[in-house]
Specification:
Helix 7 crosses helix 8 and helix 7 runs antiparallel to helix 9. The protein is of the alpha+beta class. It has two domains: about 190 residues, OB fold (Dihydrolipoamide Acetyltransferase, E2P); about 220 residues, Chloramphenicol acetyltransferase-like domain (Chloramphenicol Acetyltransferase). The protein is globular, with a radius of gyration of 27 Å. Strands 11, 14, 17, 18, 19, 20 and 21 form a seven-stranded mixed β-sheet that branches.
Length: about 475
């Protein structure tokens, strides 16, 4: 018996810890190479961690809700080496699908690349199991001879025996397959896989979901559920009120708290704002949607395009301040903009960013806004997608608010807030009229620029919102 311990891998982007959300296997389960064994939540996203070993689970190091440091033991697996019992590999026989191949939506198992015996080389945020070739080449699988009826019957019997083995962890490698099962209310442990070695594929989940006997997936407990207060602390000494529960400040909430505290501590910020008549912008958006309902950019994308034009003229607002070893500071300017935008998720407020946003049209920005927002809300955004922005847009109007003094997303030096667009009285050509009004507010680092730069940028964006057709002609 050889027991190997797998430690929590380096999750990249400077992340040094992760919260263990839930185990996907139990002690005694049989696991395959690259099979997801646990779901962890970092300050950036929630990810499934695959196991680099195949064998039987001997020990789970940690409980749900516990925070583990990178490099700490995560799981111990009896690989079966030395006792004459071969360990399962890669979710089935060679030629089986890896989870990346399954993500490509049901590739033919017979056409899949051969899986290395000690790992597939699949990567998860800076972590890869052994066996990934450095050349990136895939070996063409050898053509297997046609099976005789007897061999086919033996293979089917082996498949049935494997599928019905007691305490066998579900043979599913793809996170997409797991998510599909969860979304359709299918208990993955009850699904019979049609892939090699009983590997569960998309079509198996779809078939199980269509069956009336499909078992529902038990509801997962909330990650940050309030913890009941001990009896000794049933009453708070300061307020005299009963303590209803305690919620640890961890994960995204911990990072938000640290970033906001650092921003307020280090950045001498100032805020300027302006009321803007967005009537023509709303009408332009309606006309574009009437002409092309599927591809018309949204208001956020159009405003983002105006913001990028403003940053091209006032690049200091998309810069960064760095402190050198001798204590002196310098302003670092960039050739381009990574545009961040605040996205509210179940895990808290995160800031996905569109890399190289200055190169995109309004339609391109709209597509990226939708894609990144969906990834952020599903917890699947990568650390690279949630860091590296140089300027942030915050559309707090979606919450029904008119204005806010936003906190700068450190280490950036400015953030632009957009309030809700509502009907208000407004003077047009000396006459009172009902117009679509919004408020733009800019918080900026006073170390980088003064009010003239901030006001010039804000006025340029406001003018673009009020006269979008003339501005878009120059973009």
């Amino acid at each position: 018996m050889t027991v190997k311990t797998f430690t929590l891998p380096d999750l990249g982007e400077g992340l040094t810890e992760a919260e263990l959300v839930t185990w996907l296997v139990q002690v005694g389960d049989t696991v395959a190479v690259d099979q997801p064994i646990a779901e962890v939540e970092t300050a950036k996203s929630a990810v499934e961690v695959p196991c680099p070993f195949a064998g039987t689970v001997r020990q789970l190091h940690g409980a749900s809700g516990q925070t583990l440091d990178v490099g700490a033991p995560l799981i111990s697996v009896d690989t079966g080496a030395g006792d004459g019992v071969p360990a399962p590999q890669g979710g089935g026989p060679k030629g089986g699908q890896t989870y990346r191949e399954e993500e490509r939506a049901g590739a033919d198992p017979a056409a899949a690349a051969e899986t290395a015996e000690d790992g597939s080389g699949n990567v998860l945020i800076g972590y890869g199991t052994p066996g990934g070739g450095s050349s990136g080449r895939r070996r063409r699988p050898k053509k297997a001879p046609s099976a005789t009826p007897a061999q086919a019957a033996a293979t089917g019997a082996a498949h049935d025996a494997m599928a019905s083995a007691p305490r066998l962890a579900p043979t599913v490698i793809s996170p997409i397959v797991r998510k599909l099962a969860k979304d359709r209310g299918v208990d993955i442990s009850t699904v019979r896989g049609s892939g090699p070695g009983g590997l569960i594929l998309r079509r198996d989940v779809v078939t199980a979901a269509a069956s009336p006997e499909a078992a529902p997936v038990p509801a997962a407990a909330p990650v940050a559920a309030p913890v009941a207060a001990p009896a000794a602390e049933a009453v708070d000494a300061r307020t005299g009120l009963e303590v209803a529960g305690r919620v640890p400040v961890s994960g995204v909430r911990k990072v938000i708290a640290e970033a906001m505290t650092r921003s307020r501590t280090e950045i001498p910020e100032a805020t300027v704002w302006v009321d803007v008549d967005a009537t023509e912008l709303v009408e332009l958006r309606a006309a574009l949607k009437a002409r092309d309902p599927e591809n018309a950019p949204g208001l956020m994308a159009l405003i983002a395009r105006f913001v990028l034009a403003g940053l091209a003229r006032y690049p200091d607002l998309a810069a960064r301040i760095e402190t050198r070893e001798d204590g002196s500071q310098e302003i670092v300017r960039f050739d381009g903009v990574n545009l961040g935008f605040a996205a509210q998720t179940d895990r808290g407020l995160v800031v996905p960013n569109i890399r190289g946003a200055h190169r995109l049209s309004a339609r391109g920005l709209d597509a990226e806004l939708k894609r990144l927002a969906e990834r952020a809300r599903s917890g699947k955004a990568s650390p690279a997608e949630l860091s590296g922005s140089t300027f942030t847009l915050n559309n707090y109007g979606v919450f029904g608010t008119d204005g806010a003094a936003a906190i700068i997303n450190h280490p950036e030096v400015a953030i632009l807030g957009i309030g809700r667009i509502i009907d208000r009285p407004w003077v047009v050509d000396g006459q009172l009229a009902v117009r679509k009004l919004t408020q733009l507010s800019l918080a900026f680092d006073h170390r980088v620029c003064d009010g003239g730069v901030a006001g010039g940028f804000l006025r340029m964006v406001a003018d673009a919102v009020e006269n979008p057709v003339s501005v878009l002609a120059d973009l």
